[in-house]
């Protein structure tokens, strides 16, 4: 009986800790996805310190918005723009499971910056590759793949009940479903206007 009470208290404390977070996780205890809110929260420091030149005594402005999170939960896209510093682009937020030297499993994340010109070029190349090879990719399912590399990102495009894009970067292997990719492209293009 005492063990059951301890178990209940532990579960209550795990769930109540989420309510004190500065962002909404909406994940539950065993979920793996890297939500848009969580990625946006964690990427703010990265964008300011690594892309925009770091913190300064001056007040600077930056617009940031989570565009989409892939259904796999492994890839989230963040738009950023700072008119003062004249920088705009897309951040890919990668999320995955890792093992340390002791064999302990933990959740890892990292960010890849794509300045606006690079983001447009990569998304255009992906979209064109899918359009130009749609007949090849659709016959038969999951047997035919296309692939290419762009800088330190590698892509495999295949059809498994819908087009999927696997993105490889720094030991991350993320699946970007086509609907999320299309939403990212549309929302990013709308922001760029």
Structure described in brief:
By secondary structure, the protein is of the alpha+beta class. A hairpin with a 3-residue loop joins strand 6 and strand 7.
Describe the structure.
This protein is of the alpha+beta class. 36% of the residues lie in helices and 34% in strands. The chain has five helices and eight strands, in the order ααββββααββββα. The protein has helices spanning 2-18, 36-51, 116-132, 134-137, 178-192; strands spanning 63-69, 75-82, 87-99, 105-115, 145-150, 153-159, 163-169, 172-177. A four-stranded antiparallel beta sheet has the order 1-2-3-4, with helices on both faces. Strands 5-6-7-8 form a four-stranded antiparallel beta sheet. A hairpin with a 3-residue loop joins β6 and β7 (163-169). The longest helix has 17 residues, at 2-18. It starts with a helix and ends with a helix. Mean pLDDT is 84; it is low at 14-32.
Would you spell out the secondary-structure blueprint of this structure?
Layout: H1 2-18, H2 36-51, E1 63-69, E2 75-82, E3 87-99, E4 105-115, H3 116-132, H4 134-137, E5 145-150, E6 153-159, E7 163-169, E8 172-177, H5 178-192
Antiparallel strand pairs: 1-2, 2-3, 3-4, 5-6, 6-7, 7-8
Order of helices and strands: HHEEEEHHEEEEH
- Strand percentage lies at 25-35%
- What's the Cα radius of gyration? 19 Å
**Fraction of residues in H or I helices:** 25-40%
Structural class by SSE content: alpha+beta
Mean pLDDT: 84
Shape: globular
Q: State the oligomer.
A: single chain
Order of strands, main sheet, comes to: 1-2-3-4
Terminal Cα separation, in Å? 63 Å
**Major sheet details:** 4 strands, antiparallel
